[in-house]
Amino acid sequence: MTDRIDTAAAELRPLLQEFILWAPENASGGDPDLVGPVALWHRLIARTDVGLWKRGDLRTVLLERIPQVVEDAEAAAEGMVAAVRAYLTFLSSTGRLSPGSDPLPRLLAELDEIEDDFLDAMDDIITEREWDEEDELDDEEDEGDSLGDFEPFADEIAALPTIRLRPDAELADAARQTTLIAQARDLSVWVGTGRKVGEQTLLSDDEVADAVRALGLPDAGNIWNLWNLAIDLEFLAPDGSDTVSVDADTAAWPYDDDEDVLDVWMLGLHSIDYGDPELDDDDLTLALSGLTRALLIRLLLAGGSRSLAELRDELAEAVAEYDDLGTDAWAAAGDPLAPVTAWLTGYGMVTVAGDVVSLTPLGTEGLVHLLDDLDIEVDARPAIDAMTAFDLLSFSADMSEEEADEEFAAWLAQREPSKAAVELLEAAAEEESDALVRVQAASLVGSLGEAAVPAWLEALKEPSLRPYAATHLTQLEVEDAPEPTQADTHWLILDMWTISAGLGNQEFVSSLYDIGPAQTLIGLLDVIWKVHHPHLEELLEAISEQHPDKQVVKAAKRALFKARSGR
After folding, report:
1. Does 2 have pLDDT greater than 60?
2. What is d(CA 443, CA 461) in angstroms, rounded to the nearest whole number?
3. What is the number of alpha carbons within 13 Å of residue 65 lying toward its C-beta?
4. CB-hemisphere CA count at 13 Å for 115?
5. Where is this region: Disordered (predicted)?
6. For residue 254, is the peptide bond before it cis, meaning its omega torsion is within 30 degrees of 0?
7. 496-520 burial, b for 16+ CB within 10 Å, e for fewer?
8. What is the DSSP string of 59-118?
9. β-pair partners for 243
């Protein structure tokens, strides 16, 4: 998706620049820069023709997409509608509103109709983000003092051997078996639609007893943790000032779609904190807050398993150091790890066998997500037997050459070389704009020698891979294989420029000098604009902005003009 956005943004840039120059003298109100996201998402989700606007497009973009992606809701509320009004007027008055578009008055009428709804959406976002900022401040204040803080273990986590993650299908199957999610579903279904709740106690004593019976729980000790989990999972939601209702899809859990299942499980991941012991004394309860996370991180650092006896000793000491009341709280809890392991077992994150507690694949996946959320470095990759060709190519980009070679060797050992070649080239063809993945795939397939010939021959049909296929088939002296054309060579150059541009200005300019003297580069620019490469225009624009030679800059601008003028 990122590459599609980049490509669409590059396509729109000249038009938006003209609009920004037009706006000061021809339109009043609104910041013309605010129209950029609207034009971009119109291009991505509504129309491939940036000049084609139909009634309904504005509603789709402004009410459905912009609230999901807007960065500055206050600025959008103040000027985005006015900016869009000016932009549509610009398209119409300059002849850029494509044939087939609805008339300008009709488009502006729709904009007027949805303006209030758009402003309401922006107000909701502003309010929600203010709450989030307050929560983040609270979290930051609490984070450094938490028994379950992961940050002190960051160096140890970074030094761990590679953590191997299981495929989504396996994880989803495990998530479907989680007892706590099933109980949260049953509680939500019991709640039903439009259930009135109290101000002090959400449910009456009789209702609690009824819910316990309906769920088949031994007692009411866990009922409020299950209630909170149901909220986290979006099974339950307020639908009025004093009523709550079950979501319409809740009763269908566990869902058939693996992605939907994992999305739900991840929504409840932070419920691990509900495993912390709850005591009658609030101060003692607070002294044990974070105990569940503290256990999880120690399991991870130990390779996935620890004896409960060792954990009790180690965590009792940690609790005593963390809080002056820690020793008293530990004693008052009886077995503080009992509720911890019970909740984590119920959420599918650990298993307990005798005196040994172990992370499950689902628990490992969850821990990696928690660490990622905290920006704590952790080396986690799919298990070799579950790693796709695209996974291999993506992860290899961040590895040393030696490590990447080892990963490829392990991956290759799972399949025949000819099949590996097909998988790698198919992965490279998935996204035409990803030059780095394409170059990596070509390099790995090239190392397979003659076993890769059938895959290379098939790759000749793919425009983005044809230059690589023709080159390697020629090197392998395959009979009747096509020779690389000049266009093929130019494509390879543009791929290398794309990669170097991603490394920074210095690397990019250096790659331009690799072509040869200025006149050689100018000669290349005079013809390379004809290549239908996804990053051509942005590369030519970068050359015109970054190359120190004025003649090269002129040649790049000339090539850019030709490319934008329809080649």
Report:
1. no
2. 19
3. 17
4. 15
5. 129-149
6. yes
7. ebbbbbeeeeeebbebbeebeebee
8. HIIIIIIHHHH-S-HHHHHHHHHHHHHHHHHHHHHTT-S-TTPPPHHHHHHHHHHHHHHH
9. 196
